[in-house]
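input
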Amino acid sequence: MHPKLYDRLRSIICPFEKIIENVPKKAGELLDIGSGYGTFCFILSKERPKLKITGIEKDKKRVNAANNRVAANSNLNFACADITCFSANKRYDVITCLDLIHHIPKKDHLAIFKKINELLKENGRLIVKDMNDKPLYKYLWNYVHDFIMTRSLEMYYVPKEEMTKLLEENGFVTEFVKNIPNLLYAHYVVVCKKSG
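output
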C-alpha cells in the first residue's frame, strides 16, 4: 500500500488527536514503537515541533518509506528495530505504543513493557493506545480489519483492565484509562508514568 494512502486511511480509523493531547508540548525526546510508515510521527511532529521524535519499526520497507518522506532539518528519525532488543544511549521523556500490542503474542508482553520501562526517564510518560475485546461486534470488526491488513489470524487483544494491571505490575503508575468513542472500533488509551 502506498504510504500516503495508508496515512489517509489510518487517520480516519485512529483517533490521533486523542493521543496527541496527552503528549507534553515542551521540548524532549519521544520514541514511537511500531511506527509503520510514520503516520502518527509525521502528524505529531507538526503538533509538537519542540519534540525530537524517533520511530522504530521491524518492517524495513516501511522504515525506508518513512525516512524517504523526512524533510531536511526535521525533528523526525526512523529506524528498523525490534523493541525487545532495541538499545539507545539515551532515555526518553515519552514513549508511545499505538495499536501494536494486539499483534504481539501475550507471552512477549512482559518483556516489551520491561524494555519500555528501561528506555523511559524517571517519571517519563508511556501512552498505550490499543483495542478492547468488547463489545463483540467491534472486536469482530477490528479482527477482520487486522486480518485484511496483516494476513494473519494471530491477534492478542488485551482488555483495558488487563492492560492497566500489566503496566502497573511492570513499574508504571496509571494516570488515567479511557475509552475513545468510535462507531466501529473499541479504542482505548492508557496513560501512565514510570514510577520512581
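quick obs: The chain has one domain: 3-194.
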